[in-house]
Amino acid sequence: MEKKKIDWSNLGFAYMQTDKRYVSNFRDGAWDQGTLTEDAAVVLNECAGVLQYAQTIFEGLKAYTTEDGRIVTFRPDLNGERMEASALRLEMPVFPKERFVDAVTQVVEANAAYVPPYGSGATLYLRPFMFGSNPVIGVKPADEYQFRIFCTPVGPYFKGGVKPLTICVSDFDRAAPHGTGHIKAGLNYAMSLHAIVSAHKEGYDENMYLDPGTRTKVEETGGANFLFVTKDEKVVTPKSDSILPSITRRSLVYVAKEYLGLEVEEREVLLEELKDFAECGLCGTAAVISPVGKIVDHGEEICLSSGMNAMGPVTQKLYDTLTGIQMGRIEAPKGWIHVIA
Ligand code: PLP
Ligand code: COI
Q: Do 210 and 195 form a contact (C-beta atoms < 8 A)?
């Protein structure tokens, strides 16, 4: 298979239409068998549930070319599981995780020419999503749904690659206690748009959201979980019922303990203890681990000792080990790598 002629090393995090995508429809209480299509357009009735009451959920995962030339995805079963949980919370039908992994496999196989080559710094980003598709005017769940997966080759999520970011403590809240912060619902992102546009206008790369109940604890950013490193090399990550259970973060916790022999604390992290950390990173599928150099809390600058030029040493080790596992340079724990070709 010949690869597409794409300037792989200069890709940003943007949409590029590829050849094939997967579609399955839910009607009369059941999913159809699903198919690949070249049609990237979705045509909906004006009153579709997703357009009126935002009944939509999504996932994000990547396909990689490994050092020895295979095409793989990373823990797609966990994305399938999380999407099942998201569906249940929004009263949508579950698209079974086994079918999810099969659909991921079909989309990557059908778009193999778009999977960036090993060493290019780019990856193929997959976006599974589901939405209520039939007309709904009273506030209630739709009866019909569409599940789709498209893919797009991407480079780094943050411009500047691994240059440390400056983030600000947001005055906006991301997720209410007992709300939907722990699932991947489109509504969580719609309400973050004003906050991210405001942060960018003020020169910040991202927002740090706090717990809305007390505004004393660190939650996450709009698209990634936090990892901190203490001065004595302990990895600390916020525990909260209203943050997304990041697959990257859960994998890094394992990598820190089992590969690097580091101590890990998953616990509440107070805003007032940020000044005591040596390193900070944002972790997620899109973000991978993006280092944070500075956190600004209403004019007060908290400068991480790792500085504004490079990743901190522990963050770097975590990054190298995780990406080493994803790209086949380091042996993966059983079940983490799903080989497609
Ligand atoms: N938190 C939020 C709000 C996200 O949107 C994402 C991205 O998926 C993450 C965290 C990271 O999750 P994962 O590592 O599973 O991609
Ligand atoms: C991902 O990392 O896959 C996400 O969905 C985050 C989004 C902000 C791009």
A: no
Has residue 142 got a pLDDT over 90? yes
Mean pLDDT of 170-192: 96
d(CA 188, CA 180): 7
* Distance between CA atoms of residues 286 and 14, nearest Å: 11
Q: Which two tokens stand for residue 187?
A: 């509504």
Per DSSP, what are the bridge partners of residue 33? none
Q: What's the predicted TM-score (pTM) here?
A: 0.97
Whole-number Å distance, alpha carbon 78 to ligand 1 midpoint, is 12
Any atom of ligand 1 within 6 Å of the Cβ of 248: yes
Residue nearest to atom 5 of ligand 1 (CA): 223
Contact 181, 243 (CB under 8 A): yes
Alpha-carbon 212 to chain mean position: 22
Would you say the CB of residue 246 lies under 6 angstroms from ligand 1?
Answer: yes
DSSP run (H or E) holding 300: strand 300-303
Check: CB of residue 294 under 8 Å from CB of residue 164: yes
Query: Tokens 């770097």 appear where?
Result: 316
pLDDT at site 160: 73
Per-residue pLDDT tens digits for 74-101: 999 999 999 999 999 999 999 999 999 9
What pLDDT sits at residue 286?
96
pLDDT at 161 over 80: no
Q: Any idea which ligand is nearest the CA of 185? A: 1
Contact 224 CB / ligand 1 (< 6 Å): yes
Question: Which atom, in ligand 1's list, is nearest to the CA of 181?
Answer: 3
Q: Is it the case that residue 159 has pLDDT exceeding 90? A: no
